[in-house]
Amino acid sequence: MIRLEQSFFARPAIELAQALLGKVLVRREGKKPGKLLRARIVETEAYVGAHDLACHASKGRTNRTEVMFGEAGRAYVYLIYGMYDMLNIVAAQVDDPQAVLIRAAEPLDGWAVDLAGPGKLARGLQITRADNGVMMTGDELHLLDDPEDRPQLIATPRIGIDYAKEWKHELLRFVDPASKALSSKLGLVNSLPRPRSLRDRRACRAVDRTSFDPCRSQPYALRNSARLFGTAVFGSSLPSISSEIHPL
């Protein structure tokens, strides 16, 4: 496997969130030469900038969000509900506050732990707010790429962001549907109702994800599959997407 360099993360969050599926997150337990904890990422969410009402940066530049305005590849770790740390990876460019939340992963190497959920993932990998701002290319915390692991993905709305108005509907959560470690089955195709009409069946068909951009123009099939079922399915090739992301 190849360790990812900082340049890998310097792309829009919507692209990074998809590219991170199948990557292996590595955490060194304790001080060198501590045990390596490894997990395969299977669920992510993209937060695409200050105009995204679900993104922390929509509230402005604060001490809490300062790391989001910095270099791509740094860990953005914050606390929710007074008890759960959440691991995000900063994306895009300096002063463009985008990040990807790591929602779930599959433990590797016979490691018996539940990483199905962002709070469980951070706890299992011993990631805390002390790691906020750490560059995720070092020995203590980094990611590996397996060139042969290119999973299919499904895009759904993000979870737990009802406050985000129209942004709560955007298809910015990405999952590997073959994984049993997902935090939620929300939006998975096999849980959807059967389309009743030919038009609806066509609208729900899989589309190539090179055409996917939920914040700009969308192909008819994708746009209507999102409207009808809140989900879309993509192959394994990464998209080519403009760095300009605008709300609908």
How are the elements arranged and paired?
Layout: E1 2-3, H1 13-19, E2 24-28, E3 36-47, E4 75-80, E5 84-91, E6 98-107, H2 118-124, E7 141-145, E8 153-156, E9 173-175, H3 198-203, H4 220-229, E10 232-234
Antiparallel strand pairs: 1-7, 2-3, 2-7, 3-6, 3-9, 4-5, 5-6, 8-9, 8-10
Report strand %.
15-25%
Provide the CATH top-level class. Alpha Beta
Helix percentage range: 10-25%
| Count of individual helical segments | 4
Span between termini: 39 Å
Compressed to H and E, one letter per element, the order equals: EHEEEEEHEEEHHE
- The class by helix and strand makeup works out as alpha+beta
Mean pLDDT: 81
Plain-language structure description:
The structure is a single chain. With 248 residues, the protein is α+β, with helices and mostly antiparallel strands. The chain has one domain (2-234): 3-methyladenine DNA Glycosylase, Chain A, CATH 3.10.300.10. The chain is 12% helix and 23% strand. It has 4 helices and 10 strands; from the N terminus they run E-H-E-E-E-E-E-H-E-E-E-H-H-E. It has helices at residues 13-19, 118-124, 198-203, 220-229, and strands at residues 2-3, 24-28, 36-47, 75-80, 84-91, 98-107, 141-145, 153-156, 173-175, 232-234. Strands 1, 2, 3, 4, 5, 6, 7, 8, 9 and 10 form a 10-stranded antiparallel sheet that branches. Strand 5 and strand 6 (98-107) form a beta hairpin. The N and C termini lie far apart (39 Å). Residues 190-229 and 237-248 have low confidence and may be disordered.
Give a quick rundown of the structure.
Helices cover 12% and strands 23% of the residues.
